[in-house]
Design brief:
Elements lengths: L12 H7 L3 H17 L4 H8 L3 H13 L3 E4 L2 E4 L1 H23 L4 H14 L2 H22 L1
Antiparallel strand pairs: 1-2
Helix pairs in contact: 2-3, 2-4, 2-5, 3-4, 5-6
Length: 147
């Protein structure tokens, strides 16, 4: 059994929903986070490629996120603010949790990634935490039974 180990940052869902009214905004924050992890920085073209959208779409979305205080821009690219990074890390952690879980139960990688992205938005934070806690309990029980 693969251990599901994903860090969790406490960001209230209600606050996240208030600030990020659309799935698109959340997707952009998460994509910025992923691009920065992969490339060390985030520029419009890298974000456009990650999201499969035009640079113009990225500019509009980033401007909205900047107005919400979730990103900033400088000569080197797009940066997440502390709040933006907390939200992005939380979304990324949730997605990675589901990808790992789905892979563990035998779902192919492509389907696991697509379904994980859907699940991160389809369930509440409470449900996610209960699923995560339940699976951790199951893993602990399985470990004690094999020892």
């Amino acid at each position: 059994m693969v251990a599901l180990q994903v860090g969790v940052i406490n960001v209230k869902d209600a606050w996240m929903e208030k600030v990020l009214t659309t799935r698109s905004n959340k997707d952009y924050l998460k994509a910025i986070y992923k691009v920065k992890k992969k490339h060390g920085g985030c520029r419009n073209i890298l974000l456009a490629n990650e999201m499969g959208v035009s640079k113009a779409s990225v500019s509009v979305a980033v401007k909205k996120l900047e107005q919400e205080g979730l990103v900033s821009r400088d000569l080197w690219g797009i940066n997440l603010t502390n709040e933006g990074e907390q939200i992005a890390e939380r979304l990324y952690a949730k997605e990675m949790f589901f990808i790992q879980w789905f892979a563990e139960i035998g779902i192919n990688e492509e389907t696991a990634q697509a379904d994980a992205c859907t699940m991160e938005y389809a369930i509440s934070e409470e449900t996610f935490e209960k699923i995560r806690d339940y699976l951790k309990t199951c893993q602990l029980l399985a470990q004690t039974q094999t020892e």
